[in-house]
What we know:
The complex is a heterodimer of chains A (189) and B (283).
Chain A: H1 16-32, E1 38-39, E2 47-48, H2 54-62, H3 64-82, H4 90-104, H5 106-109, H6 111-114, H7 118-136, H8 143-146, H9 151-187
Antiparallel strand pairs in A: 1-2
Helix pairs in contact in A: 1-2, 1-3, 2-3, 2-4, 2-7, 2-9, 3-4, 4-7, 7-9
Chain B: H1 19-33, H2 39-54, H3 64-86, E1 100-103, E2 110-112, H4 113-138, H5 145-151, H6 156-185, H7 197-217, H8 219-228, H9 246-268
Antiparallel strand pairs in B: 1-2
Helix pairs in contact in B: 1-4, 1-9, 2-4, 3-4, 5-6, 6-7
Amino acid sequence: MTAVTMDRNSLWAVDSRTIVYSAIGAALYGVLVGLFKVPLPGTTAVDVRPAFALVPFFGFAFGPVAGFFTGLVGNMIGDQISGWGALTSYNWSLANGAAGLLAGLAPLYLAGWLNGSVGRKAAAGAVAGAVGVVIGFLIVFSDIVKDGLDFNGALGEYVPAVVGDLVATIILVPILVYAWDPVRERLGR
Amino acid sequence: MNFVPRYLGRGSWLAQRDPRLLVIAVACFVLAAIQVWDIRLMVLLTALGFAWYRTAHIPFRAVRRQWLFAIGFVSLIVVFNLIVASGRVQRLPEGVEEHIYGYIPVVGTPVSDASVTYAATQWLRFMGMIAIGFPIAFSIDPSAFGATFARLGVPYRFAFAIDLTWRFIPSFVADFRTTLDAQRVRGMDLAPAGRTPFSRLRRQVPVVVPTVVNAIAGAEDTIDAMDLRSFGTGKRTWLHDLRFDRTDRLVLIGFVTLLVAATIAAWTLGTALLWIPPFLIPG
């Protein structure tokens, strides 16, 4: 993973690599998010969105800037393509961005895991993604102000979203890390 | 669903505007709409949103699916969050009594004149936001996205990333379809099967992972091309030179005025509080 070699300063570097990976992440997330949805049994209107795993993965693999951009812009594009409108739920796009950003900060709180085998890196990806989802999506509580929801209403949005995205993150981020690591080695990154 | 960005509003009045105006209009409208809870004003705001949308001349048949999704999703959210699940009404003016029509069976949530008004106001708000935001995808020249956001103050690297994102979408959609076809030829069935979400999720891995890894691996050419052109070493210019004309300035002033007026009215005239139409009040 690129994140393995990141020191504290290079985490925030915005070079051509960051820009291109950010754009790729956002485009993939925006396109794939509406295509695949898996309903969670025993819940109403709660879907696992496999494409969401791209947000923590891009953050974890390419840094917090790429993660934030992938979540923010990718969610806006997905909303715009579906007809919902890029800015209608801008706070949810920010929450997606925050999830990617927090996953990208893994070198700050999971440094020990990133220097081990691919298996340890994959586990670190899942943990960083889970941290990003649980904390990042707290932003959706801003619906209390924006949409006039009460606390229970906002909690009713937060919990299903986090559960669905956690399932996608914990399963798919390690798979993506396993798939990406040999490619990264081959490219010499 | 067609994911390729389409310039459906080409040649329309809205498409002739400076694209920055379309983004600023949405921002002003959204910030104004979230402050309004008086349904009479919300009807006016929603009408403004649809009037704006009409000037884009987007053929309905080309965006029918998007509209169906938007209307269905808004209705689901509003009915579920505000009527079925909650039933609690905020923004009710002091001294106004809530009249309960009855209770939803099983969940026991009360349905009242206030909760119906609250849900209707929220539904109108979302529809207005969607109508005014729709033209961003279909009435801005796709090649002007980068310049638009750069001239709106977004740092040029991120404006370039937005431009790049929009340009990547068609090629990723093509790659995705190729991967899907290739896996189907190998006998993969994407139809939902399996008892748990985990097994269903696993079935999608053979499509999602190759699409993602191919996209990332193929990025090297773009990165090299940008490095060879010294991307990031200094301030860059854009091919599109954007200028507000007289009409753009007038419309811009109109939307800024709308935002300021909505803010002042919310603080002084009580438009941030619910207004229940008399015909909803029983007796």
